[in-house]
Structure formats: structure tokens, C-alpha cells
Amino acid sequence: MTLAFARRMWALDCPSLTVEAVTLMYGLSGMVTIPMPSFLIEHPKGLVLFDTGIAPRAIDDPVGLYGQEMADALGISSTPDQRLDRQIEALGYKLSDITHVISSHLHFDHSGGHHLFPQATFYAGQGELRFAHFPDPLGAFCYMPDELAVMRNFTWREVPGVDVDLFGDGSLIILFMPGHTPGELSLKVRLANRTFILTGDAVHLRAALEVEFPFPLDCDTKASLQTLRRIKRIAEGEEASIWITHDPDDWAEYKQAPACYE
Ligand SMILES: [Zn+2]
User: Fold this and answer.
1) Distance from the CA of 35 to the center of ligand 1, in angstroms?
2) Count of Cβ atoms closer than 10 Å to residue 118 Cβ
3) CB 95, CB 3: distance < 8 Å
4) CA–CA distances in Å: residue 136 to residues 27, 55, 62, 151, 220
5) Residue 1 Cα to ligand 1 middle (Å)
């Protein structure tokens, strides 16, 4: 196998949520504002999205989409330019250029834009699609039946409980990281100058990774703990930078579109 690199990676700007910090990690207090980004990756064999964030409609009308109680609890803050479709178009791409969508999991804040890419091939971790339709009660509010119904028509590839090398060249490795949900996925992106592990919701905050605290709403706490340790081990072994999707410090530290990593 000849190893290659992904060409460029952009973190796309996004709305934020303001929630009670204790909902993200035991022991915290006060409120925390967290990003909900997607990542766009250019590779010679395709244009890949890792997650699609919150539904564009939620930016215009969060109460209409989620109801007053949930909209209040989420504290969505956004501008129209943060819509995923506008973010992609601002970089000079068409929505129809997207060839692959890797879905870390199917919670509403990671899959709300999936419907924009009906031509793409979608990747979900083993068990995620079934669990999304019959979730455990505790986290069921994170799955949107109307959005899932649209996704039924897509082309899905299930990542079969092991890591998958998307293009067979070592540049994009889909990492099976169960615990938050049964089919949680992270993505290792190997660029010429830097390697990232995009965690999805395998972990929510850098502090949680350091002290190895699973997320309070994880469906399998024991698996989550193993996943946290595995992320650290891979990052150490490969000198990769960990980018935690919802961590506000990571969002502030790393480059955002239109800047990119190469
Ligand atoms: Zn989630």
C-alpha cells in the first residue's frame, strides 16, 4: 500500500449551544457555550464531510423545529452565514460536490445537514442506524425522527465494528469509537503537515479526556472509558492533534475556514 495524504481540511463555522456545564461532564458548574462544527476534507478521490452539524432550518427557526422547551434548553446562537450550505459554498464548492459523509453519530447536532447531500455515500458505525430508530430513553431526545426518515433513502455503508481506511491509502481512517452511542465514529485525517483525530462525540471536553470522565448521557459508560483511552493512545503513538468537536478551547485554538490545514 502506498501511503498518501488528504490535501486540505477546513473546520466550518457553525452555531453554538449554551448549556449547563454539568450536562457535559460530572462535577462542573455554571453554563458553557460550545461549537457544533463540521469538517470538510479534500482528497484526490473525493470531497468528504465529517458530520453536518445542526439543521440549517434550526438557524432560522429553532422553536419551530425543536419546540420551545428544547430550544430554550439548547440556547442556540447563530447567524445565517453559519448555515452549512453557505459555509461550503463560500469555499467555492457546490453541495453536489460532496462525495462522502462520515457521520460520527446521528444526534441532531451532528446530522442535521445530512439531507443536503443525497448524492453522497454515508458512513455510520455498526448499530447506529438501528439505535437511532430505537434509542434508550435517556438520550432519545437527541434523535430526530423526521430527519432520520429522510436518511432512509440514502446510500449507507456501515463501519463494521473495526477501523476502516476510507480510500485505502492511510489518509482518512474511520475509527470505531463506541460508547457515546453504539456506532460512534471518530476520524483520523493525515495531512502532509499535520495529523488530526476528529473525535465527534467520543469525548466532549478536553478536561474529560484528561481525567477520563465519560459523558453523562453516554449509552455505554464502560465502552466510553475504553474509547477515551484509545483516543489518547492513538494520538500519542502517531503524534496526532486531537480536535474535540464540542470543546470551546479547541475551537478557539485551531484554524477555522476559510483558513485550512494542509
Ligand atoms: Zn451526541
Assistant:
1) 13
2) 15
3) no
4) 24, 23, 24, 20, 11
5) 34
- Measured in angstroms, how far is the CA atom of residue 53 from the centroid of ligand 1? 11
Q: Is the dihedral of CA 16, 85, 41, 131 positive or negative?
A: positive
The structural domains of the chain, ordered by start, are 8-253 (3.60.15.10)
User: Ligand 1 centroid to 79 CA: how many Å?
Assistant: 22
Task: Give φ, ψ of 41 to 5 degrees.
Answer: -130, 125
Answer for the pair 120, 99: CB distance below 8 angstroms, yes or no.
yes
CA distance 225 to 222: 5
0.85 exceeded by pTM: yes
> Is 80 exceeded by the pLDDT of residue 43?
yes
Query: How far is C-alpha 20 from the geometric centre of its chain's CA atoms?
Result: 20
Q: Rounded to the nearest whole angstrom, what is the distance from the C-alpha of residue 201 to the centroid of ligand 1? A: 5
Please provide residue 195's backbone torsions phi and psi, each rounded to the nearest 5 degrees: -115, 135
- Distance from the CA of 204 to the center of ligand 1, in angstroms? 9
Q: Report residue 175 as a C-alpha cell.
A: 475509527
Query: What is the CA(13)–ligand 1 centre distance, in A?
Result: 18
Taking only the tens place, the pLDDT of each residue in 122-152 is: 999 999 999 999 999 988 999 999 999 999 9
